[in-house]
Amino acid sequence: MSFTKARTMPGVMELLPLDQIALQNLLDTVRRNFERFGFLPIETPAIEFSNVLLTKSGGETERQVYFVQSTGSLKQGEVPELALRFDLTVPLARYVAEHEAQLTFPFRRYQMQRVYRGESAQRGRFREFYQCDIDVIGKDALSVRFDAEIPAVIHSIFSELKIGAFTIQLNNRKLLRGFFEQQGIADNQQQMLILREVDKLDKRGPGRVRETLTSADFGLSAEAVDAILAFVGTRSSGHQDALAKLAAIAADNESLRVGVAELREVLELVRAFGVPETNYALNFSIARGLDYYTGTVYETTLDAHPEIGSICSGGRYEDLASHYTRSKLPGVGISIGATRLFWQLQQAGLARRGQSHVQVLVAQMDAAELPRALGLATQLRMAGINTEVQLESKKLARQFQYADRAGIRFVVMQGADELANGTVAVKDLRRGEQFAVAEAELIKTLRVEIEQSRVMGDAALPAAAAVVAP
Length: 470
What we know:
The chain is an alpha+beta fold. The protein is 39% helix and 18% strand.
């Protein structure tokens, strides 16, 4: 008999259970914080009409789309009309346009689903991955105050994840465009090309960006490039320093004035939202490569691990669904690539494996008493304690070994002696201790032990715990 080799395609993440628990804890933390700020969940289909998906930008996007085609259509040579979503923004635009009449604006949604891209097979690039997005969508207009709320959400998430010090870096595309106009660079296409290069400054370094900008493709003088690099090299240290750097800008055109004013308002409100000034800063090189951003833009980085790059990014856009409706729907939002973030944290040694959600194993002491063991397990589950029952007859030592390897902390035993005394024996595998407790007190005792473990941080991670090592 021949076997097909068991393998997964490149560019997907498939985890063992304890690592999957750690990823799920990360997702749960993100979801909990989205909901804490009043965002509502939606889901959209993994498959959309291809003409809907490809309205975003075309070009590079088209080369990364996975088209979907039935075997029947494939045989008939039909052009695929369906495709897997490559992000959550385009489906959101379609969703808002389609359900506009039923939605309440501003519409605050979060979405946490897998997306699919035909990435080249390489380390750290995924073809299937989780994105976790929030967006606030307005009808006709949306106050810049919402731009200030987004960093508060980011701060809440990454503080709870406990992955180390981080900085939310802010900029404004209007400020950048206004500065380019000030330098005599008025052509929109040329501005976009420069923005894409500027956005690579922290990754490529000023030398290589200067090389690119002084090339014939850009047609910029050495003086203009010097001015651009000096401006986009601006970084702030502390709240007052950020305000001072904005005040020092000679805003001699409307775009520059508006950009400065919006950034100042966002900064003041970010502080009012309770974000510590050590966690946010101006960075005038942040541009975000996507063309549809029009105002505030964000990138979040780990202070001790700049090589990881942005762990959360996004910004303001003026018209989300212009391809699908005449309504003007401005918005602001962010995206966390959860799969890539989790992988990066593992590579940087910041992630730790999750621990089993099973808190108790009810041992099988006597096959004839299995119904009693099942009844005991049912009582524990009804009390909210995650419980597994040993259903096969095994030596007690092997049951302990199984529980230890599976990450189950407590083994509950009720043999003939315990039954005679009305007690239950509890083995704490973490501490290597065993104690007896009255059967009527078992649930209360286990709850106290589990709660103490949660407080001390030496038991299975509960829902609210960090997913990575501090």
